[in-house]
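Researcher: Sequence recovery benchmark, item below. Answer with residues only.
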C-alpha cells in the first residue's frame, strides 16, 4: 500500500483523470476527498467508492473559482481527517476558439478555473501543509503548457502559467517540506474531449507516437508516484505523460 494512512484531496475528482486518480489512491490505502462542483457526479461517485473502500471516500462541493470554498475545503479536511498529505490540483475545463473570436468572458473563465483556481488550491494547501510540516502538491498542466496549438489561446496561457508557477511554488515551499510538481498529460480519453469530432480525434491520435490517446489511469499512476514518498527528491518537475507527443519537439 503506497499511500497507506495518507489523506488526499482531488479537485475535479468527479470525472476523467480526477476520478481515476481518486480510485487509484483508494486502492493504495489513502483516504480521499473528491472536491468538485455541487452539481457534478461527485457526491454519487464518492458514496459508491466509500462503500467499496471501507469508508475512505468523501465528497465536498467546491468551485475552484471561489476562494472561500477552496479555503474551507482544506480547513474542513484537516479538521475531519487530521491532516492533508497530498492534493491533486486537477479541476479544469477545455476551450477551443479562434483567438479573434474569443470573448473576454470565455477567455477569463478558462484562466479563472485553469490558472487562478490552481493558485487558490495551492495556496490553501500550503497553509495547511506548512502547519503540519510537509506535503505534496501536484498541479495538472498539459503538453499545451509547453507547446502552442491553434485556437487554444486561453488554455495554453493557463497551462503555461501552471508549469512555471509550479517551479516557483516548489522553490518557495521546499524548505518547509512541501514538494510541488506538475503533470503534463498528452491527450487523454475523458469527457473533456467530447467537444472534438472524429476527424479531430484521429488527427490528435496521430500526434502520439504510441498511436492512441492516453487513459485516465495512466495519469493517475503518475499522480500516485508524485503524491507518494517514492518521489521524496522530486520537486519543481513537469512530468510529461504523453505517449511521446513532445519527444520529437524542441
Ligand atoms: P473532465 O472534464 O473529465 O474532468 C474535469 C473535472 O473538473 C469535472 O468533474 C469538472 O466538472 C470539474 N470542474 C470544472 N470546473 C470546475 C470548477 N470551477 N471547480 C471545481 N471543479 C471543476 O476533464 P479531464 O479529466 O480530462 O481533465 C482534468 C485535468 O486534466 C484538467 O485540468 C485538464 O485541463 C487536464 N488535461 C486534460 C487532458 C485531456 O486530454 N483530457 C490533456 C491535458 C490536460 P464538470 O464536468 O461539471 O465541468
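Model:
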Amino acid at each position: 500500500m503506497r499511500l497507506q494512512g495518507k489523506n488526499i484531496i482531488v479537485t475535479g475528482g468527479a470525472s476523467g483523470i480526477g476520478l481515476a486518480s481518486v480510485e487509484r489512491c483508494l486502492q493504495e490505502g489513502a483516504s480521499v476527498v473528491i472536491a468538485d462542483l455541487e452539481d457534478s457526479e461527485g457526491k454519487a461517485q464518492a458514496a459508491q467508492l466509500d462503500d467499496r473502500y471501507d469508508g475512505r471516500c468523501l465528497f465536498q462541493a467546491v468551485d475552484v473559482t471561489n476562494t472561500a470554498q477552496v479555503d474551507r475545503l482544506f480547513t474542513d479536511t484537516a479538521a475531519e481527517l487530521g491532516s492533508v498529505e497530498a492534493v491533486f490540483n486537477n479541476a479544469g475545463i477545455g476551450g477551443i476558439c479562434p483567438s479573434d473570436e474569443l470573448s473576454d468572458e470565455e477567455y477569463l473563465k478558462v484562466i479563472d478555473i485553469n490558472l487562478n483556481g490552481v493558485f487558490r488550491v495551492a495556496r490553501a494547501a500550503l497553509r495547511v501543509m506548512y502547519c503540519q510540516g510537509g506535503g505534496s502538491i501536484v498541479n495538472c498542466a498539459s503538453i499545451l503548457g509547453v507547446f502552442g496549438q491553434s485556437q487554444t489561446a486561453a488554455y495554453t496561457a493557463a497551462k503555461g502559467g501552471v508549469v512555471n508557477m509550479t517551479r516557483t511554488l516548489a522553490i518557495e515551499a521546499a524548505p518547509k517540506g512541501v514538494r510541488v510538481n506538475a503533470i503534463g498529460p498528452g491527450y487523454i480519453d475523458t469527457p473533456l474531449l467530447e467537444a472534438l469530432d472524429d476527424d479531430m480525434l484521429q488527427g490528435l491520435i496521430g500526434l502520439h507516437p504510441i498511436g492512441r490517446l492516453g487513459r485516465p489511469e495512466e495519469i493517475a499512476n503518475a499522480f500516485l508516484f508524485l503524491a507518494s514518498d517514492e518521489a521524496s527528491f522530486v520537486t519543481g518537475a513537469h512530468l510529461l505523460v504523453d505517449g511521446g507527443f513532445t519527444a520529437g519537439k524542441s
